[in-house]
User: What shape does this take?
Amino acid sequence: MNVHAVKILHDNYSWVLESNQIAFCIDPGEAAPILDLLNRNKLILKCILLTHEHEDHCGGINDLLKKFPHCIVINDKNYEKIPDILDQKIMVYKTPGHTNNHLSFYSNHHLFSGDSLFHLGCGRIFSGTADDFLNTLSFYENFPHEALLCCAHEYSLEGAYFSNWIFNKIDNIYLDLIKSYQLKKQTIPVSLSIEKKINPFLRTDPFLFKALAQHGFDCSTLSEARLTLRKLKDTYQSNVVFLSKK
Ligand SMILES: [Zn+2]
Assistant: This one.
């Protein structure tokens, strides 16, 4: 099975999985770049998989269905009906938090996390609950190391800025990442084993608690630390936009 990252919209990724000229597409927020890939490789689109219903993940469905009217659309209501026609099985996991019905998919060592986990970050809580959010982070924390994280946005530079701000003077690995990501257009996929060590939302080491204490938050549990990070990230976003415009 081949896996293609397709850059769509401003900073989204859609993912195309293919074997034997049959293709599945994850989160087609826009149709044209995906149709282009399908045409170039003479692929037939048989299935669309949606991690959640936000427009930047499903805006291209209608145009894809016009070209491939027999294609099946899979979401949280019918996920047990994923056709078993690629050369690798596709596993489905419920990963609520960003939304209350968010799904993640896994196939051939690729973990498609939509907006529930990004490189160096995670999606904010919209329709999910804090408990959902925490359970989903634990799920990723315990997911097999060898997986490659294929998320739905290129937010890595922004995540590196935030991480560097959080771990200021405690862990300086993020400065190198900022330098390198300023030059890179694509940083995804990334190994989940690395992600567990450097994504602040998956870190469990004492430095995390030390870093939050430096910002004035004395957290006694991992859940408390992760929710504090989420709140800090929610208000940090605008600073990053300002920084990256400079
Ligand atoms: Zn979303």
In short: Residues 52, 54, 98, 115, 123 surround zinc ion (CB under 6 Å). The chain has two domains: 1-76, 90-145+154-187+197-246. The beta strands are 2-8, 12-19, 22-26, 44-49, 72-74, 91-94, 103-107, 110-114, 148-151, 190-191.
